[in-house]
Amino acid sequence: MNAAPDPASGLEDLALRQAAGADPPDPLLRQVVAALGAGRPVAATADELGLGARQLHRRSLTAFGYGPKTLARILRLRRALALARRGVPFADTAARAGYADQAHLARDVRELTGLPLGELLARPG
Questions:
Q1: pLDDT digits (tens, 9 = 90+) for 74-102
Q2: Angle, vertex CA 97, rays to CA 86 and CA 113, nearest 5
Q3: Fold of the 71-122 domain
Q4: Using CA atoms, how far apart are residues 119 and 106, in angstroms rounded to an integer?
Q5: CA 44 to chain centre
Q6: Predicted local distance difference test score (pLDDT) of residue 2
Q7: To which H or E segment does residue 11 belong?
Q8: Which residue of 2, 74, 84, 108 has the lowest C-beta tally within 10 Å?
Q9: pLDDT band for position 12 (50/70/90)?
Q10: By the 8 A CB rule, do 69 and 39 touch?
Q11: Longest dimension (CA), the chain
Q12: Does residue 6 surpass a pLDDT of 70?
């Protein structure tokens, strides 16, 4: 193996080689992400896609490394972070992203990221 000119190039080359030998992505995953990202319940998403709960869980686990409920939580958190970064007050952010209240949002942020919401928002990106 030749040394890459820089670490980023080396990682990119490795990723491209691994992707070339990987199985094609599951075509239903885009629909799963869209449905869960829009706030659809996991059970309804599975039904709409003609999958059983176990099938959806297996496919999600294979593709993402966690089940569809965790994926739904992460996607909901992403919606909330996008709103909060645009300056929407936290209580409104929580309601618009699908949380029961601001405390629910704060708990989910800490459980998923290990950081309080304010600290997470202070980080770039």
A1: 999 999 999 999 999 999 999 999 999 99
A2: 80
A3: Arc Repressor Mutant, subunit A (1.10.10)
A4: 11
A5: 18
A6: 55
A7: helix 7-20
A8: 2
A9: confident
A10: no
A11: 54
A12: no
**Cα R_g (the chain), whole angstroms:** 18
Q: Are 63 and 29 in contact (CB under 8 A)?
A: yes
- CA 120 – CA 102 distance, rounded (Å): 15
Whole-model pTM: value is: 0.78
Give me the DSSP letters along 52-95: -HHHHHHHHHHHHSS-HHHHHHHHHHHHHHHHHHTT--HHHHHH
Q: Which two tokens stand for residue 113?
A: 């990221």
Amino acid occupying residue 30: R
Which token pair is 49? 């896609």
One-letter amino acid at 101 equals D
Cα–Cα nearest to 78, from 33, 46, 25, 42:
33
Q: How far is CA 52 from the centre of its chain?
A: 21
The residues, ordered by sequence, that sit 6+ positions from 4 with a Cβ below 8 Å of its Cβ are 10, 13
